[in-house]
Amino acid sequence: MRSGLSAVACALWFYRLRGSSMCGIVGYTGYREAEPILRDGLKRLEYRGYDSAGLATVTGSGLCLRKSVGKIADLADVLQRQPAPGTSGISHTRWATHGEATLANAHPHLGGDGEVAVVHNGVIENHAELRSQLQADGFTFRSQTDSEVIAHLIAKYLDGDPVEAVRRAVSRLRGTYGLAMISPRFPGVLVGARLGSPLVVGLGSNENYLSSDASALRGYTEDVVYLLDRQLCVLTPNSGNVLSVELAPAEPVVHRLNWDMEDASRGEYEHFMLKEICEQPEVIDRAMAGRLDEVDSTAHFGNLSLDPQKLNQIDRVIMTACGTSYHAALIGEYLIESLARLPVEVEYASEFRYRNPPLDRKSIVLAISQSGETADTLAALRESKRKGLPTLALCNVVGSSIAREADCTIYLHAGPEVGVASTKAFTAQVTVLTLLALHLGRLRNLSASAGTRILDELQQMPDLVRQTLDCHDEVKRIARKYHHVSNVLYMGRQYLFPVALEGALKLKEISYIHAEGYPAAEMKHGPIALVDEDTPSVFLVPQCPSYDKTMSNLEEVKARGGPVIAVACPEDERIAGRADDVILIPRVAEHWQPLVAVVPLQLLAYEIALLRGCDIDKPRNLAKSVTVE
Ligand code: M6R
Question: Residues lining ligand 1, judged by CB closer than 6 Å?
């Protein structure tokens, strides 16, 4: 990093983080035209939010601002008609928190009379108060967003030094931000600031980048610096500096990223979701790679810095996560309790962070997150650390906030997951949780022979999941039969109960059909009232100790006229006569069933959504990383 613009002292500010909006930021300053680079970066970040987008560049005569409502493709149309020249600029894709998805509310926002342009991720809690003050000062607001106050504040303080203006502006903010600004008065200068919403600087040669997510920089640079909370950065084509909030130079750590270009493209697939479903055999392989220890019949994690003695003293595991990661955690609960005989609790991160449960020092907290940026999971992790508990993260995105803040992190190595509906990350999470359960088990009472058996079986899983994918044609047929329904129930027991939850989540999030998952025996306690001839029930009934019990629950649904789709094993001679439709999956031991049983449910959701004409990779109202609480 090279030295930069002047630094001025400032006051520290303290307040509690509350989360941030789920948008994407890309900035560029260099010798090339900024617009194609910004557009390309936004395209990769579109999964973070996609209700409107915009960019601003600095030209010889001022700022050039282009916005559109809708997706990045809509912005690209605007740019084709009205290009945005200039070699520096900032851009944004939005997921609305304050104000609807309109052109006026799309970022960038201009401050003053166009002295600055600002993009912002986050939530400004005192925006109403700041807005009134700025209006009294004569500033005119053009949007309903909380972000616009930042643009006007920077414009208000803009004198000889844009960094000082940003510093003064952010010192007035209460809430969270990852922001970037440019000004026609300082061509080629890009200033960023972070508190509670990620920002990463990409270092190039005679060009530098800024983004809310390193994946936007794929193909442009491999060297990145993750800004920490309360840091600012100042980028010009030839310098990239990170400063503390007092504007003292910070010592940034440059991370070298290892991009896999293949992984981030759709290849031959129509949707990322389908590609990611089909990648699952390789994902299991990657999650295991280098972690199986056949000599000691256990699993090892290179960077697990918690020493075995400490791990042995742990008498409780608390897992916290959201959405699909929460379902993987529920499977982890069964696995760890069974293999390591350790009590496990699983809590939604949003509940855990506020519940203030009694925690003793012998507990370890596992935060599970594909993105590593989920606001509630991050807050739950921070709360656990504050209480002095050891923390472990299971993350997919390298260098993400959760991965960096946990005491130690096990990476999933699933490769970039682009589809908003999580699929391969779930499989990687379950695989890593199995390895962790084995590791903890072998530190306790699990025998070497049991460890060896688990390792052997685990190594067969990629092939078994590959075989499971053969059910795709049958799933397509079933999807055609049921794609018009309004409600679907999913039932499973034991290890398959979380899979039922996951199947229901997949269906509702991408097809907008109402779906719920239940432990099969719970049906009689209420949900069975929903059963009628238009409400199919998906029963997970592979061969396992609870097979007969689950079959009885299936009969109860049949007796009430409900259509049944069964996910079962080829060895099952009863099922064809009882279920309306059967999807066959390979027979595996009980603790491996989630890895195979989830596949037809992912495919079913995908095919139904396809037939209903839904936007599968970007379902309505959702975003890939949920960085608001
Ligand atoms: O990145 P995370 O694993 O922390 O994300 C958690 C949830 O937001 C995520 O799993 C969400 O539920 C997915 N859209 C499910 O497909």
Answer: 322-325, 369-371, 374, 377, 420-422, 505, 509, 622, 625-626
